[in-house]
Specification:
Length: 340
């Protein structure tokens, strides 16, 4: 009797901790720490953008990568007019040396104090200025874990911060191999745009969730002073939260970045991808964190998307001939923290 009672007490005590969403800080990158924790990848852009990714020495020498104090700025060349037959615009793509498996939380703080992404807010006419960044787009923020497993039937990408041209709100999307779907009804503040995550269906759109607030990406994200993105990945789900800079509900865990956090207290996520019809652990390999800046390419460069954003000529012509338009298109990242 006594043993039984003891056993159930132990079980009760263990059960919550086995499932509690408590994590411990494992990485905290600020400023120049990014230079050793991340590799600059001088590779051909996998999405065929009009960019030429350069190595770290070149990026630092040309001030495309600027790491100092509590600032990391990643930008593209904004002074050179490009030859149509030559390489794309010099730009930067960095990848974390460490990879992360399940039970990982990535916390990102962007402080975008100037009109970073699109220059829209400053220079009229509106349609022309929008195109300052027309060139693009899908900014896979520090959030996006990327697969180390790049090929094969279950090759999968992880969630990414994606936005096309100046369009907001931001969408959070999982891209997976076959047999991964999301339930129609989920407890999240965002709105599902597609429930089949399989890249082989629905024109590779993945299963997306649109953030409820327009200020999650692009000009309004910047105007609002940026914000925080957080991603929690376990074998049971992937959750993504976005908190605008001045929101009243930013958890202290997110703002202060303490040694231990508990995501159970963070409230409803912006996007929830549960494992009910998707073996999350099986579809996703260990993720790197990649931060890159590309223009045009497979998605934003699509003629229909490009022109519906109000942009002139073609995306590639625009990138070649308007270097000044990229002066304000850059990542300004205060810190990236990971808890495991
Ligand atoms: C490099 O870029 C940073 C950030 O934009 C800027 O503050 C700094 O003045 C630049 N340095 C040079 C030498 O241009
Ligand atoms: C970053 O790179 C990925 C491919 O690895 C691509 O899908 C995405 O569009 C890129 N985004 C930006 C802004 O560079
Ligand atoms: C979802 O994840 C939980 C916890 O990891 C696991 O017990 C369950 O079997 C998973 N369900 C499916 C359908 O994969």
């Amino acid at each position: 009797m006594r043993f039984a009672a003891l056993a159930s007490l132990v079980a009760a005590a263990l059960a919550p901790s086995a499932y509690a969403a408590t994590y411990h800080l494992s990485d905290n990158w600020v400023g120049s720490a990014f230079l050793s924790a991340f590799t600059h990848e001088a590779i051909a852009d996998p999405t065929h953008g009009r960019v030429n990714y350069v190595d770290q020495a070149t990026a630092v020498a040309k001030n495309l990568t600027y790491a100092s104090g509590d600032t990391l700025i990643l930008r593209a060349d904004h002074t050179t007019t490009l030859s149509a037959s030559g390489a794309g615009r010099n730009s930067v793509r960095i990848r974390s040396v460490k990879t992360y498996d399940t039970h990982v939380v990535v916390w990102v703080s962007f402080i975008l104090t100037s009109a970073v992404w699109p220059v829209v807010l400053t220079s009229p006419p509106l349609s022309a200025s929008m195109c300052a960044t027309c060139p693009k787009a899908a900014v896979h923020g520090p959030l996006p874990g990327r697969p180390t497993k790049a090929t094969g039937p279950t090759a999968a990408k992880s969630t990414s911060i994606e936005g096309v041209n100046d369009q907001s709100p931001n969408a959070m999307t999982l891209h997976t191999g076959a047999n991964c779907a999301m339930p129609a009804s989920r407890t999240m503040t965002g709105t599902a745009t597609n429930n089949n995550c399989d890249v082989n269906t629905d024109g590779n759109s993945g299963c997306g969730v649109q953030a409820p607030s327009a200020n999650s990406y692009g000009p309004s994200f910047n105007a609002n002073g940026g914000g925080w993105y957080a991603m929690e990945r376990t074998n049971s789900f992937v959750k993504v939260w976005f908190f605008p800079r001045n929101a009243g509900n930013v958890p202290n865990d997110v703002k202060a970045g303490p040694a231990t956090i508990n995501t159970d207290t963070w409230g409803e996520p912006t996007a929830l991808f549960p494992n009910t019809s998707c073996d999350i652990g099986g579809h996703f390999d260990a993720n790197n964190i990649i931060i890159n800046l590309t223009f045009c390419g497979d998605w934003a460069g699509q003629a229909s998307i490009y022109s519906s954003s109000g942009c002139p000529s073609t995306c590639v012509d625009y990138v070649n001939n308007n270097p000044g338009a990229f002066a304000n298109a850059y990542w300004d990242i205060a810190s990236v923290r990971v808890w495991q």
